[in-house]
Amino acid sequence: MDFKGSETIPGPRAEDQLPHTAQAAVKIVIVGGFGVGKTTMVGSVSEIKPLTTEETMTQAGIGVDDNFGSASKTATTVAMDFGRIKITDQLVLYLFGTPGQERFWFLWNGLFEGALGAVVLVDTRRLEVSFDVMGRLEERGVPFVVAVNSFPDGPRYPVADLRSALDLSEQIPIVDCDVRRRASSRDVLMTLMRFLHSLAMTGSLT
Hints:
206 residues, alpha/beta, two-stranded antiparallel sheet
């Protein structure tokens, strides 16, 4: 077979290649209701160009998708977002952002497979959308931390009040964040890793 003249398929960019020092990779899922900032978080913290599956929102979603507080949002994730960040020279996190609309939640089962932990993004303007999200994680035994994403018009509550409203145990960390900022998103991931480490040390992480 003559391959002369055929185009060479480019390999991954140097910045996208897995560091040669990496010895362990951990799968993390970022979950939450519609419009809480999952895609933004993956994009802000990922060291590689993130993979997104955003599609333009259409009239067909009216009455189906709840876009409270996100009236200006014109696109939505329909499958997943994917990114990667190196925590240390040896440890790499693979980040999977889930779709927010309930009609796409059937995809979550696959995304949860093999996940060591999760970040639950919360919008204080609509805490109720977080209940089913956390319930699904608890059913699958996936440990998680709660990150309260800052919105300009979002009310501020003491951590104790949030913990009570979300019916969370004292063990589960709750942190404030601004997912638009890389450092803030990275701090959330570090909180999750410390939480997972503490669970492993006590034998609670299976």
